[in-house]
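Narrative of activities, Objective 1.

The group set out to show that a structural description can be obtained from nothing but a protein's sequence at a throughput compatible with the screening campaign. Below is one input-output pair from the validation batch, recorded exactly as produced.
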Amino acid sequence: MQLKDQAAIVTGGASGLGAATARKLAAQGAKVAICDLNAKLAESLAAELKGIAIVCDVSDASSAEAAILQAAKAHGPARVLVNCAGIGVAKRVVGRDGPHPLPDFEKVIKINLIGSFNMLRLAAAEMSKLPPLDHGERGVVINTASVAAYDGQIGQAAYSASKGGIVGMTLPISRELAQFGIRVLTIAPGLFLTPLLGGLPQEAQDSLAAAIPFPHRLGQPDEFASLAMHMIDNPYLNGEVVRLDASLRMAPK
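Output recorded for this entry:
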């Protein structure tokens, strides 16, 4: 898909992987709507990219519906949705204070998994009404999973479950939406230098990087964004989950 003058929505777009993706989309001429709970950061980036900022809770049906409508009023119905909004909670199933608090588990599932599906279902419904482009394509949805969907560590039960759900829904949704010319893909990043990891001491960052076979460093958000751009550009990619992890699964235990 050629992105010039096409409308795109990026959730979690105010920072990290989402911000890098929003910048790449705008650089290729897309009209970008940045959906995020952090209004200040979203507005700052939107001003830089000449896009729009939308405060949105992806896990809430009404908030997501309003965001899709606001983006469409500003730029027209989106042909691209990139879901980057997500959170992580590191807690043991049985910890010093007792069992894993159920509300904490539910919150991660609601934001990461249900939030991604919520935005996908709404955006896809609008994409299905659009006239087809080259190859009969009407739109592309890219979700963000994680290598934790496959190689979750102790304390990642909620996070791994949420990302595993995203991996699991990719193929069946892509098969269903194929009739409309809508492609659905997922990126499963490894350890990336996002605000979450960027806030760790350098010693901790170096320790994480040492576990990565090659290159021995944390991933850069721009590398995630570059893969997203290739997925959008390549019409034969559909229903795939692509690990972007520098072969982290091969790291010694």
